[in-house]
Amino acid sequence: MNVAKETLRIEAFSDGVFSIAITLLALELPFPHIENIMSNAVLTQAFLNNWTAYLAFILSFLSVLIMWINHHAIFRHIHKTTNAIMFTNGFMLLLIVAVPYPTSLIAEYFNTPAANTAVAVYAALFILINISYNLLWYAASANGQSLQPGVSKQTIKSFRNIYLIGFPIYVAAFAVAFFNAILSLVICMLLWVYWAIAIKKFNQ
Fold it and tell me: In terms of residue numbers, what domain contains 108?
């Protein structure tokens, strides 16, 4: 069995799912339907009225992009695949392809009294996604045999710590969402920035 080729197939399949998730985000962007467009100003105002949809799209696009970068960093260190890796990776992809759903909730309800619930659902999905990343790394590093030769214990520990920190922060964002939707999203964004910076050294 060609182990390296098998790993590449998992990565290729995963890249396709990430691409689908991002494409679905774009497809959810609203088109301004106006029966009687009297002027440029009317169409411009119609675009501006959809600002929550654009905000949700940008946030979720950035989150999926950072998740893809982290996924790439993980698989750079995996040499041999196992059933556990494939199933945990599949669980993660299931959740990632669902990102457009809470994104649509934010687009629709962020500027309404229901914003807290919409953002709470958004944060809840990311709690599950964080769990899936932790499970994937655990499946890959549990016995060390699936990792590339030469991967140090420090690298294994660093990956584990990077992803473990996300769970309590996402839980906090979920709880905060019921009181302050904007602050909850800010907490999520700060966590994405942290991961974008922290994972950089593992992609070099």
Answer: 3-203
